[in-house]
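User: Structure tokens for both sequences below?

Assistant:
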Amino acid sequence: MLAEIHRKISRSGSNLSDRLEDKLTGDFFGAIRYMPFEVAFQHVMRQVRFHNDDHQLEWNAVIDKVAGYEAVLDFWPSHSEGEIDLLLRHSDAYVGIEVKYFSSLSSVDEEDEESIRPEESKNQLVRYARMLKEIGKDRPKFLVFLAPYNILFPVEHAMQTSSVLLEDVPFGYLGWQDVLSALEQIDLQPMPYWQAMIINDLKALLVRKGFVHYKGLPESLLHTELTDEAYQYCKQDIERRGYLWPAHDTIEQEDSYVYHQQ
């Protein structure tokens, strides 16, 4: 809905295949904003990872302060550096969130980064960091890159070895798979029905998008005592059935044959 309201998707939907990231952004964050921040959004934002411990502590402190509807979400705000997907404005911080689904960064530096200054970089994330530095003024500023693991990890590695990062705009990283895991851990039992319904819909959406991932062996299995004794596996008797093979002298390729159950 929000992607269409903000004209990311045409009225006819003819450009929908080119705007799937915008649609996912609008569908997910447009729905999660209807609930108080601490109900679901906070759980998701706690999954953001920073490589600097001080930045991580500062981030956690900011996220834990936000409650209710204090945070204002701006979708695709226009700026000379580009349109970041989501801008979260709060009295304690500015948070930019760039969302990816199928594609990676839209622009990177083609030249040797060592010869490029941060204020000259064409890298999409660096441009958004410059935007946050300008509009955030004296408030703490954070930039979060949200993407599936296969896109997230290569970008994360490249940015960690980059020389064009802005020191006063920490970069955080979040996988869509981590978002789904965070929602799955929320206890829906004490919630009003409408909140639980939204969270269930968001989980179903992310499952449909293919963000389910292997989380390791069950905790109970990890504590199972192993011995040298043999294990006996029991199963119910399987009903045996017989089938009559067609009485043909030869089997011809691409012909159809019917098997009759005895």
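Moving on to the next sequence.
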Amino acid sequence: MGNSDTIAELKLPRLGENMDEARVVSWLIRPGAEFRRGETLLEIETDKAVMEVPALCSGRLVAKLVAEGEIVPVDAVIAHIEQDVPTAAAGMAPEPIRPSDNIKPTAQKPRPVAPQRCRPGTVAASPAARRSARDLGVDLTRVAGTGRRGRITRPDVANSSGGLRIDGERGPFFVRSWQAGKIPEHHAVLVHGLFGDSLMFDGLARRLVREGVGVFGFDLPGHGRASDLSMDFHQCAECLAEQLNRMKQAFPQRPVLVGHSLGAALAARAALETDFEVGGLCLLNPVGLGTRVSGRYIADVANAKSSGELRNALERMGGAPLSDVRLVDLQNRLNRGHAAISTLCSSMIDGDRQRVSIVEELSGSELPIALFLGRSDRVIPWHSDGTLANIPSNVGVHFLSGGHFSLLDEVAAVFDVLRRTILPSARGGHFVGAADHSSDVNGSPPGSARPR
């Protein structure tokens, strides 16, 4: 390193839209080691996934301030680094700090460094393997490593992948799986909303797995790892039902369908078209109960030409800022699946009006149904479009404090309702139905009344 080197603070970046804190899984470099821009410095874990923190400039790690296993908030200082000023990215470099007594001169004799060993309970895996495991929903503790000293490699993850493609008449769907520790007796099937993918359910899926529930998540056409074959809402619902029918041998008991936004409407429709009975429905901020939708938001996201436009569209709807890396990834996915997404959108909305209704499906259903509405939802403004009056009396209603993406912020609350209501019914127990509750998940009275 040259004379232009500067001691700086390395802060924990926000790598996800709703990331507030993270647990440090492992440091991939040790103090005194040099790194290059783009090299992974450490791996962190949130409620949703294990992610890598890359270096935004070249430099040398001076001191680690956070140990592996510690949970730290976003923007907390996690290390001191010596950065190479000329290569630091403008506007992205860590904030410089003045040298102080806690940063010792580096002219001391270096001590021998023992080979790094995994602590009990940790998994030795390459960064590429962790990335693949995150993308495929694979539990690394269940993967046999073939690398040096049993380290898990990317091919190891691929060979035990939790993802699979199911070919149907309308083309392949991608299905992700989260496996319980033992063979599960019960299953949940997760269906994401517009512009998302099955990984948005990762936090909820992991909680369900800990409850002994096997979980499958679909990537819809044009999203995630699904095909880009275009189909409208009704065709997509038929395709979802077809895929569920093909998977029914995997369900020893009636599976629960969980859907968000578009996915909630698809789940409600598909539940009527399967050739077996599902165990219940969990619908989060669904399309199809009211008349209005923010057509501007959908158009702005679908047609964003730059990461800046995409960021503005997402943040207008109340979402937490995404990192540059996440924005680029989302924009690439939207560009790839643009035709399929456009077909879905045009079949669901006309300007600011919804063209899809699931009121009839819910009214005639004998299934246990839990409905979640975000108080601050600006994508589907249920407060003013007649949604509450349209909710059938057989549906249990729960109010979340967040917006359209409340699922990401209030995973624990959604899981608690599922655990107490829908899952017992799927297992043959008592369902706490709409006659028993219409509540705020925080225990306070709901902000709006609804007819009984």
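User: Anything stand out in the second?

Assistant: The chain has 13 helices and 19 strands.
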